[in-house]
Design brief:
The protein is an alpha/beta fold. It has 5 domains: about 100 residues; about 80 residues; about 160 residues, Rossmann fold; about 170 residues, Orthogonal Bundle (PCRA, domain 4); about 220 residues, Lambda Exonuclease, Chain A, CATH 3.90.320. The strands form 7 sheets. Strands 7, 8, 9, 10, 15, 16 and 17 form a 7-stranded parallel beta sheet that branches. Strands 20, 21, 22, 23, 24, 25 and 26 form a 7-stranded mixed beta sheet that branches. It has a 4-stranded parallel beta sheet with strand order 2-1-5-6.
């Protein structure tokens, strides 16, 4: 099957090609189309062999002429510095500047803008040594900074014997002997003065416009959702292709960066190339993916990042799960635990030593050495990570690190990934060529430098010419299509908002007609593109999104003379799954409760929290204790609430081990008590995993020590003022209790023996306590302490101990009012009822036994109390929100 040519005006330039005139195009796509049209033209005229014609993009042609002139000895040789190297020099100049009165949020972005500003000045042949021009830079702080940086940039270039491509073209312009070929510009408009001067200096030049008669214009289509616009464009492509496979069709994206990937998905969906037949999509894309973002290269950069001093937790998880990493002998049972431990560190980045201690548990070193150990052996004590090197010197360590991790050995590369691997090697060569411009780089700087090189390159898969094209606004120039669809034609995009370069005086940019300088330039540019689309297609379809963030948007003023489609087209999700759903046969789901079996019961020992969850929402208990559905830890700044609880419990455990009773506490002097508190705080810190201590840092721990010391001092003052003597007879005591066959594990924070022999079970709390009424009723919502009341030997009282600053005190129930806040159990009995806490104990035993029986019988209905959902985080399982909506 042969496609119709994209360039249909070969007759207009055939004589020029025969004369050896160079045809200069505005982009590579038109150059390829002209070359293909020439081939077909010559073959149709019986020519089998011919001299290769010069058909190149304009800028590339002039650079090639400069190189030819150097080869011929007409121009002295020089080192042409490409865009990436220029930005490196600009970055060094900006970083070294000490005169600026402002700080930059992004020096890298400033370097990019300065490089673009410098290039624009050269293309418009602006002489910065001219006093009047320099004065125009003095009115704005950014422009003054640029002028200062530009002088240092020129000095740096001179020291390197380098020139920019634009300086090379100035040399070419001053060498008339090198300009000895006639040139013809094909569909060029708005040439920069430097390129215009080069054309005029050539022995003969022409500007050829291949205008065609305008095709039909269809009514403008409006969509309420951007996805609907792209989905309909994809459907349009399929319909056009199926009606005439030899035709030429294109979708022009006004926002290629954001819309390209989404349109590709819809195109693959329409053409049936999402999974199977992936490579058979009959579509060419004008732009590919940034090379640093394709999976193969992205994972290589992540592997290199594992060697820096602090590593992102997400990076570690991504590398461990990457399919491009050699399948190491990971302990499958440790993978989830290790990932959870990393997340529990509650910080975005962790130090190297912390990372290795966690990963060591994951890797089976009996099978093979761990990759991080291999990396450390590159030089003694990992010195390779600390010594700055030039870019080319970093290549060997980079390759060694990737080899240690077995990069590319984890999966067989398909054709696209093989192309990416080849381009990776080319990018490494480019990175190595930056030695003269970057100097010695640290490891993080080298990785970022390599990332910058990769981000400058596009991965464009090598594919055959296809009927459907996806193009940017500039890439349709000179081409002819059977049908064009132009997206994003809303008033806020066409014409676009002006974006002048912030480092050049705005007045200078407007006077010189530089790109994006003002609204007038944007309108001229948009109008020129519109004329090209009209003349370059037989049928033109335009569309726009009519609603932006809930606000009505208008079509572009360029479309005012075009009728609107009768209605706004609503977007709807792909409904093919509904057909599958209606035709599928599903097995009937049993909603019967699943009791806890004998094996499960024998292996299961749950905490008291399961009864609290069963009371709050039976499904919550089922999901937690039986399904093991525990949410991932949420990263937080500073210590977690659970860690603060651990510190408090360990400190109190240590303190009561020292003075054991109220008498021992009262016997201490203030200095002795302070010393014991310091000792207890030191002991408490040992309860936090070492990795977390490393991550938190000294300042955070110092603040927490001060806070904890204050909390302990206030609490011990309250203990000293208690109404009667007591002795602490149990601390952090582990106990088990069986209730209706359910084995429950618990840990008693503390048990006091009072002066009359009564026992009081105390549970420390550092936050809100609630009320003792939550212990009562048929389904106690806080059953922990009522359960403690059932333990042998029976206690005469149960109480919370609140250590919350400003709210210190006891809250509980006892055989008598042991302390202020511990109420007499008689207050909670019916009128005339006697028996004290013994009666409450029987009620608790009955209520808690029912909760335990419900859990064992598999009662797991989704029926939460008002408070149950606040901290549950299991909505993906119970889907309560969907039921309520």
């Amino acid at each position: 099957m042969s496609l119709r040519p994209l360039f249909t005006h070969i007759d207009s330039i055939a004589d020029l090609l025969a004369e050896g005139t160079a045809i200069l195009t505005p982009n590579r796509r038109l150059s390829r189309a002209v070359r293909e049209a020439e081939t077909q033209y010559r073959l149709a005229n019986g020519v089998q062999v011919w001299t290769s014609s010069t058909i190149l993009p304009l800028r590339q042609y002039w650079i090639e002429r400069w190189r030819i002139a150097v080869t011929r000895g007409l121009i002295p040789p020089a080192n042409v510095v490409d865009t990436t190297a220029q930005r490196l020099i600009w970055r060094r100049v900006i970083d070294a500047d000490s005169q600026g009165s402002f700080s930059l949020l992004s020096p890298a972005r400033a370097a990019t803008l300065c490089q673009e500003a410098s290039e624009r000045l050269a293309l418009w042949r602006i002489n910065l040594d001219d006093p009047a021009t320099r004065q125009s830079f003095s009115f704005d702080e950014d422009s003054r900074a640029f002028l200062r940086w530009e002088e240092n940039f020129r000095k740096a270039l001179n020291e390197l014997d380098g020139i920019t491509p634009e300086q090379a073209l100035e040399q070419l312009l001053n060498c008339s002997a090198a300009l000895d070929q006639a040139v013809a510009l094909l569909n060029q408009d708005d040439l920069p003065p430097l390129h215009q001067a080069l054309c005029e200096a050539s022995p003969a030049w022409k500007n050829i416009q291949t205008a065609s008669s305008a095709g039909s214009i269809l009514p403008v289509r409006a969509f309420s959702d951007p996805r609907g616009e792209l989905q309909m464009a994809a459907k349009w492509c399929r319909e056009k292709y199926e009606s005439d496979p030899e035709g030429r069709y294109a979708v022009v994206l006004s926002d290629m960066h954001n819309d390209r990937d989404r349109l590709e998905f819809y195109l693959r969906q329409e053409f049936g190339c999402l999974t199977q037949n992936y490579s058979s999509l009959p579509v060419n894309f004008a732009t590919g993916f940034r090379l640093d973002r394709v999976p193969l290269i992205r994972d290589a950069l992540r592997i290199l990042e594992l060697s820096v001093s602090e590593v992102s937790i997400e990076t570690v998880i991504a590398v461990v799960q990457s399919r491009f990493v050699k399948p190491f002998a990971f302990r499958a049972d440790q993978r989830e635990r290790s990932i959870r431990r990393l997340r529990e560190l509650a910080k975005d980045k962790v130090p190297q030593r912390v990372l290795r201690s966690v990963l060591d548990e994951l890797f089976d070193k009996d099978e093979a050495p761990a990759p991080w150990d291999t990396v450390l052996q590159l030089e003694a004590n990992g010195a390779w990570q600390k010594r700055p090197r030039s870019p080319s010197q970093w290549l060997e360590p980079f390759k060694a690190v990737l080899n240690a991790w077995g990069w590319t050995l984890g999966a067989t590369l398909d054709s696209l990934e093989y192309q990416q691997a080849v381009q990776w090697q080319e990018a490494l060569d480019t990175f190595a060529s930056l030695d003269a411009f970057s100097g010695a780089l640290t490891l993080p700087e080298a990785i970022q430098g390599l990332r910058d090189v990769l981000s400058e390159q596009q991965f464009q898969p090598r594919t055959d010419d296809n009927a459907v094209q996806v193009l940017g606004p500039l890439e349709t120039t000179g081409l002819h299509f059977d049908a064009l669809w132009i997206t994003g034609m809303s008033a806020d995009r066409w014409p676009a908002v002006a974006h002048a370069n912030p480092y050049l005086p705005h007045a200078l940019q407007r006077q010189q007609g530089m790109p994006h300088a003002d609204a007038a330039w944007e309108r001229r540019w948009a109008s020129a593109r519109w004329e090209q689309w009209l003349q370059g297609s037989n049928e033109l379809q335009t569309s726009y999104v009519s609603l932006l963030d809930g606000t009505e948007a208008l079509p572009s003023p360029l479309l005012l003379d075009i009728p609107q489609a009768p209605e706004i087209e609503e977007w709807s999700a792909d409904s093919r799954w509904l057909k599958q759903s209606s035709s599928a046969v599903f097995a009937e789901v049993s909603w019967d409760e699943v009791p806890v079996g004998k094996k499960e019961r024998a292996a299961q020992g749950v905490g008291t929290g399961v009864l609290e969850q069963q009371s709050a929402c039976p499904f919550q208990a089922f999901a937690t204790a039986r399904l093991g559905a525990v949410p991932l830890p949420t990263p937080a700044v500073g210590l977690l609430a659970s860690e603060r609880g651990t510190l408090l419990h360990r400190a109190l455990f240590e303190l009561w081990g020292e003075f054991q009773n109220r008498e021992g506490l009262l016997a201490l002097t203030a200095e002795q008590l302070d010393a014991l508190i310091d000792k207890a705080v030191n002991y408490a810190e040992q309860g936090i995993q070492k990795e977390r201590l490393d991550v938190l840092g000294g300042e955070t721990l110092w603040l927490e020590r001060r806070r904890l010391s204050s909390v302990l001092s206030r609490w011990l003052a309250l203990e000293q003022d208690r109404s009667e003597d007591f002795a602490v007879i149990a601390r952090e005591e582990s106990r088990e209790h069986e209730l209706a066959g359910l084995r429950l594990r618990m840990r008693l924070d503390r048990v006091d023996e009072l002066s009359d022999g009564s026992r009081l079970i105390i549970d420390y709390k550092s936050g809100a306590l609630g009320t003792v009424n939550q212990w009562l009723g048929e389904r106690p919502s806080r059953p922990q302490l009522p359960l403690y009341a059932l333990l042998e030997p029976l206690a005469e009282g149960i109480s919370y101990a609140s250590l919350k600053p400003g709210a210190e005190g006891f809250k509980g129930i006892g055989e008598r009012e042991f302390e202020d806040g511990i109420a007499n159990a008689e207050k909670f009995l019916e009128e005339g009822e006697q028996g004290g806490i013994g009666v409450l104990r029987e009620r608790w035993k009955h209520a808690l036994t029912l909760l335990a029986e419900e859990f064992l019988e598999g009662h797991s209905v989704v029926n939460p109390t008002d408070e149950a959902c606040r901290y549950c985080q299991r909505f993906e399982l119970c889907r309560l929100g969907e039921q309520q909506s």
